[in-house]
Hints:
Number of strands: 11
Strand order of the largest sheet: 2-3-1-5-4-9-10-11
Amino acid sequence: MQSSVDDLSTLYEFFKEGEATEEEVQAAFDTAFKKMEDLEFKNMLRSKEDTLNCILEINAGAGGTESCDWASMLMRMYTMWGEKKGYKVTQLDLNEGDVAGIKSCSLQIEGEFAYGYLKAENGVHRLVRISPFDSNAKRHTSFASVYVYPVVDDTIEININPADIEMHTSRSGGAGGQNVNKVETKVQLTHKPTGIIVVCQIERSQLGNRERAMNMLKSQLYEIEMRKRMAIKDSVEDGKMKIEWGSQIRSYVLHPYKMVNDVRSELKITDAEGVLNGDLDELIKAYLMVSSKKN
């Protein structure tokens, strides 16, 4: 970066003497600026776990259909964001709402720095809009929580005592053919010492779902250990905020005006539709900037 800045400075001196064009100076500036942004990015995502894949969980808050619909909008937003980044997005679990939307879901997002980016999304997300489910067209406020944790790779040792695991199986829901409807392939694992519960139903076999669920469990246990090393005493569950007014990290307002407001970075974006279509990078970077300054 320093070399690029020096080249820009020299070229600018040539420009003032009439020996370089404005286009050449602009090109040198763009190169130096890009290198500065790359260095800034590496500084913000310098932790070992930032490079890992991650699992993103969404849970609808109180409010029935409204919150379930909002949770499904968030699932769509993160899926579109991942696809735009060239990441692989896999739906591990889905619990549909009674009328519309979803009560909860788990997505695995695979790609370089997936966790580093998406750790910015941990917390409660608030939506304000005219409800499509209200015949009186009243404005409603809905909440949903997002919880992101890194997926441990094969180089990280997490030992789990089989006696500490309680497994339940059931029939998977959704599309999948006769096998899904007749065979208990859906797996739920409960880690008794921590109370962590993971569910997986993406694979066609019980064994496949159990293997994925174990990896999800190992990932959560790894995050707990990671938090301990960072001297954070609160457990993962204690660190989750209540899904209610006043605890949100970000508000998405679609009425009476359109704006997305990130409480932590104080960044406001007027293109709410763009954000809901997966354009999250500006919000994520603003949070990472604030977070890196605090650290």
